[in-house]
Design the sequence.
């Protein structure tokens, strides 16, 4: 097992290296530069050249790439032009917020998705199955940002139950109930689509398993139905559910961008959008590399978990 | 059986959750004596020399003072940290007498040495704290040759040539005075640990959540009324609107035109103020149909500016008459009338010029500072020009790419482009964008290559005249000529807007677009 994990980790290195190159080239080749974005109306060629020089952007492209890569390998992601602070500080702070949001949404979608899928499969074509399928289809079809805006209108503007935006109350907030209150709407809005996808896949995976011989044997042995479904069948079905969860983890992470915009959640998605608009090169590059590294890591974890459940996969 | 149990249990849990949600108390209002301001973005830094965005200026103007400032409700300069000043006859020496007994928030003294430190830091590469930059707008003070602390309360600026906008540049945020002691203490981190002399002291900056400032009880110009001001960055305009409606913020700037109607009720006040802003179309006067003055005038007649201002912008702007916004009351020529909407006259002019059916390329941006609603406006303009027989092809670019296309000049690429400017002196825009010496290849913004020696001369003369009446006369002549030459289509002057809750009193917007909160009451 250790060997397998090591192999997977090593194979991630070229992937990450490729990502650094791609994100660097994209930022270098798109029109517009940080100096123009900072100077706005006052971006005369002379002012732009002076500011670019002070920002260290006048060196040749390949040289800038290797300086950036070298610094990053030593843990120095550089300084953000637009926020005037170290890129890594900003990324870690923002990632923390995204993790709270995406993590909650992921747990919600995994738990409710699997429960809904299993109940559906166990009652195939029954009333519960039909009701769940209907709700799931509805959930998958609503864009999360639209759902988010509607929730804000209803629960925050009209009913005033929940705060509109942000992660903590602006005055005297910051404790757990306060964060939960701010988290409710964005986490739900973000989880809805993913829950639907997980539920559908969990349902078909369960149906597949329920048709197999060992289930019939278990039932014939007189194992209670609940135990057959939640213990025997679900465990076997998890082998095909887990990779879907891995994909959903990525989906939730990228979907967080819209939700963070709508709810003004101080996460990494919103940070990247702002940074791209301001041509904050180092922040975009650092942020993308960081998120990509997390994504790669998730996939490795998923693969390892899967191989633990089903040893055949390793080969 | 077991499955049924589970569903029943789930249903129970769901019901419990819903009950809890229903039992949640109504979201608390903002506390009294604390003013919460909805900003459009996270500030970059709270170092006035290092920032360029109006969004940052809105905070800075409450923490710092300059030597001079704009008189309430105008763009005219009055004393602030300097109690008086004298200008030498040739206009190259400015001697300021400083207010005595003023202290920075960190306890250090404000004096002539502090003033000298501020400008040397920005302008001298060998200054020990020059590395706390970069200072993108330091060219505002590029006319300064030297700053001399004559004695503790007197400071003398020597300029390399007479430069009339100098005083109003000092009133601009780039000229705000920071505490040298704080710069020495925090170095590059000064922007996160600001210290000035203003009516509010910096208290806290939590990234992406809030910037908090507290009343400065020793303020030289009378204490502020409100105890605490919290600036919250809310980049999405819809979210900002929802926060305002829900009572999460007390004051919101830059309300989207379409959202204004939602604040019509008694619990909100809408505040408006025209500012030194101009939205215009740059016309390529070097080549193509717009090289002919008649065609440029035709474009001015063909575009229905009142419809743009009233329908597209929902009344958040006024029709512009010429290159100088009316907010510069002393320099603006009142006698100038906007080109009326007259498609027939436009057609006649086009016929005279033989430009009927000409094909035009039109650069439109997706957004950007001061650009209002550029896509909707671009489409409406396209339709108006098509109606008089011109064929207009729109090319749309994201703001930074757009600037990269327009600033180097339109030659060989396009016939017209959208543009907007907000400035602090009537000199800035025409000097940088209408002079022959300001062609893109010479480092200016005259992207349409308009050239009129008479205008060049008037602008050069106005820049060195230190008498305001003399300057005003020169600017008025310039406006008449530019209006007739029509190098641009003059479209709109934006009215800045804000919404406050009914718990906020005594709030007014400034023509400078700054946010001055000293006298604002929050109940």
Sequence:
């Amino acid at each position: 097992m250790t060997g397998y994990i090591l192999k997977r980790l090593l194979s991630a290195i070229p992937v990450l290296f490729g990502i650094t190159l791609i994100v660097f080239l994209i930022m270098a080749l798109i029109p517009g530069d940080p100096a123009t974005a900072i100077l706005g109306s006052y971006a005369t060629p002379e002012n732009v050249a002076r500011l670019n020089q002070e920002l260290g952007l006048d060196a040749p492209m390949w040289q800038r790439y290797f300086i950036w890569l070298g610094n990053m390998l030593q843990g120095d992601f550089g300084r953000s032009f637009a926020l005037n602070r170290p890129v890594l500080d900003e990324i870690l702070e923002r990632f923390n917020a995204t993790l709270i949001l995406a993590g909650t949404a992921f747990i919600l979608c995994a738990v409710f998705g699997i429960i809904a899928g299993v109940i559906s499969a166990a009652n195939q074509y029954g009333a519960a199955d039909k009701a769940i399928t209907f709700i799931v289809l509805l959930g998958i079809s609503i864009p999360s940002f639209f759902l988010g805006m509607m929730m804000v209108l209803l629960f925050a503007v009209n009913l005033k139950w929940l705060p509109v935006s942000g992660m903590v109350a602006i005055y005297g907030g910051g404790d757990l109930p306060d964060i939960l209150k701010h988290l409710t709407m964005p986490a739900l809005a973000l989880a809805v689509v993913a829950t639907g996808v997980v539920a559908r896949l969990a349902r078909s995976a369960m149906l597949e398993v329920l048709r197999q011989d060992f289930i019939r044997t278990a039932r014939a042995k007189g194992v209670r139905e609940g135990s057959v479904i939640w213990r025997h069948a679900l465990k076997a079905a998890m082998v095909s559910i887990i990779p879907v969860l891995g994909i959903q983890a990525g989906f939730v992470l990228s979907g967080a961008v819209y939700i963070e915009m709508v709810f003004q959640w101080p996460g990494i998605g919103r940070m990247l959008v702002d940074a791209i608009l301001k041509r904050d090169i180092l922040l975009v590059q650092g942020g993308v590399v960081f998120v990509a590294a997390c994504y790669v890591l998730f996939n490795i974890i998923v693969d390892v978990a899967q191989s633990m459940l089903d040893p055949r996969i390793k080969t | 059986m077991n499955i049924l149990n589970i569903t029943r249990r789930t249903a129970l849990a769901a019901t419990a959750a819903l009950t809890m949600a229903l039992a949640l108390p109504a979201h608390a209002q903002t506390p009294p004596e604390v003013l919460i301001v909805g900003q459009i973005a996270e500030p970059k830094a709270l170092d006035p020399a290092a920032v360029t965005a109006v969004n940052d200026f809105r905070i800075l103007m409450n923490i710092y003072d300059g030597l001079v400032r704009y008189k309430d409700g105008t763009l005219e300069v009055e004393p602030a940290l300097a109690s008086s000043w004298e200008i030498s006859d040739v206009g190259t020496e400015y001697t300021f007498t400083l207010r005595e007994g003023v202290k920075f928030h960190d306890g250090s003294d404000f004096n002539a040495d502090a003033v000298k430190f501020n400008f040397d830091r920005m302008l001298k590469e060998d200054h020990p704290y020059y590395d706390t930059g970069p200072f993108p707008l330091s060219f505002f003070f590029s006319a300064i040759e030297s700053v001399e602390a004559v004695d503790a309360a007197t400071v003398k600026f020597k300029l390399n040539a007479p430069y009339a906008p100098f005083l109003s540049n000092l009133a601009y945020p780039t000229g705000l005075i920071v505490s040298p002691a704080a710069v020495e203490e925090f170095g590059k981190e000064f922007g996160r640990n600001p210290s000035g002399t203003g009516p509010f002291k910096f208290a806290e900056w939590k990234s992406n959540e809030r910037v908090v400032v507290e009343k400065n009880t020793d303020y030289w110009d009378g204490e502020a009324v409100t105890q605490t001001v919290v600036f919250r960055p809310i980049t999405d305009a819809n979210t900002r609107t929802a926060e305002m409606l829900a009572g999460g913020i007390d004051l919101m700037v830059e309300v989207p035109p379409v959202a204004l109607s939602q604040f019509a009720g008694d619990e909100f006040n809408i505040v408006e103020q025209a500012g030194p802003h101009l939205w215009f179309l740059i016309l390529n006067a070097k080549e193509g149909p717009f090289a002919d003055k008649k065609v440029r005038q035709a474009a001015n007649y063909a575009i229905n500016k009142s419809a743009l201002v009233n329908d597209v912008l929902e009344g958040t702007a006024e029709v512009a008459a010429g290159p100088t916004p009316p907010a510069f009351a002393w320099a603006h020529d009142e006698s100038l009338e906007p080109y009326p909407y007259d498609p027939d006259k436009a057609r006649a002019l086009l016929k005279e010029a033989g430009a009927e059916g000409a094909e035009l390329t039109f650069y439109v941006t997706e957004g950007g500072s001061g650009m209002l609603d550029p896509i909707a406006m671009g489409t409406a303009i396209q339709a108006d020009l098509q109606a008089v027989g011109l064929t207009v092809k729109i090319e749309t670019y994201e703001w930074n790419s757009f600037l990269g296309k327009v600033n180097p000049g339109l030659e060989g690429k396009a016939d017209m482009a959208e543009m907007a400017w907000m400035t602090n002196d009537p000199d800035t825009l025409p000097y940088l964008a209408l002079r022959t010496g300001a062609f893109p290849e010479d480092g200016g913004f005259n992207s349409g290559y308009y050239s009129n020696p008479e205008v060049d001369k008037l602008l050069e003369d106005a820049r060195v005249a230190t008498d305001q009446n003399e300057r005003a006369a020169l600017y008025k002549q310039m406006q008449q000529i530019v209006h007739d030459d029509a190098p641009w289509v003059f479209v709109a002057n934006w009215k800045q807007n804000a919404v406050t809750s009914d718990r906020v009193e005594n709030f007014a917007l400034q023509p400078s677009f700054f946010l001055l909160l000293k006298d604002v009451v929050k109940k």
Observations:
- Chain A has a mean pLDDT of 87.
